[in-house]
């Protein structure tokens, strides 16, 4: 589950005044934060949810950009068993209130994101959420009087501190994943690129990434562009093949269909970190390998850019991205925001493809401190 970004300000000093002391603090009022808060509320625990925005589920006000969720809303199974039906309902949170089933908010199999916003707004009623509270820094201190031997100290944007025994992080993976390469400044991010397909009429587009956001973006503009190329470091992972719902879903694979049917669209394979974009001065963007760009810069002293001289050349002349692009869109997914956590937390990223998540154990607790819990953002370490 995903929630909005939290930003860290190094200049904010620690203060000694405590607004309140809690047993449990939850960061984020998205689906993960509201679900754990519902359990705490029903158990009559001492807790609070901190949400930087003025409403729950604000992530879904803007994302996904094209507003269609890939979490299925299956309302009919032919069964009366509630547990069985909930296994096939990917949107409803757990509650004793039968009216808080997502099927009451949408009948679409792939629902609109606005319906999720309405659902989370109603689900949050009765939950202790402090809206407009932006946690800027989290640290930990030894406390012999605490039942677990330490306390978490949370500093908000007003320079007030809050403390708790257990910290549950449900802030999701909220930062756009950005890869730096020569010419990266010419790219547009998925989180901000236009969603009006008419803005792409007659243009040639390169999309960086091969996940659902990349294919979702391609599907939106497919009928307006000259052609779309999609670049990723590995082959497309199809959810029906991998059985992982986060891989490419059939609802988004229109570009894959046109590619296989030999249309002008194409899928390219390569490491994006080796990429280089060259602006020719007239608005066109040429793709090359940064090796060729380096060799070009070393061999010329003039200021005239000749993109064709930077393109790979071989006897087969099979460089797929030889034609220039009008736009390059970055759709590389998201990563966790580690910046608010003080060094005392000792929170570390995972390894390899899991480095975008915090390193946690099989119980989704941070490896260093057993009472720091991630909800909806982390992957277990092994």
From TrEMBL:
| A Pfam family this chain is assigned to | Pyr_redox_3
Q: Record keywords: Cytoplasm included? A: no
Q: Where is the signal peptide?
A: 1-17
Entry annotated with the keyword Oxidoreductase: yes
Keyword entries, A-Z: Oxidoreductase, Signal
Q: Which residues cross the membrane?
A: none
Protein name (database record): Uncharacterized protein
- Tell me which species this is from: Staurois parvus
Specify the taxonomic lineage: Eukaryota, Metazoa, Chordata, Craniata, Vertebrata
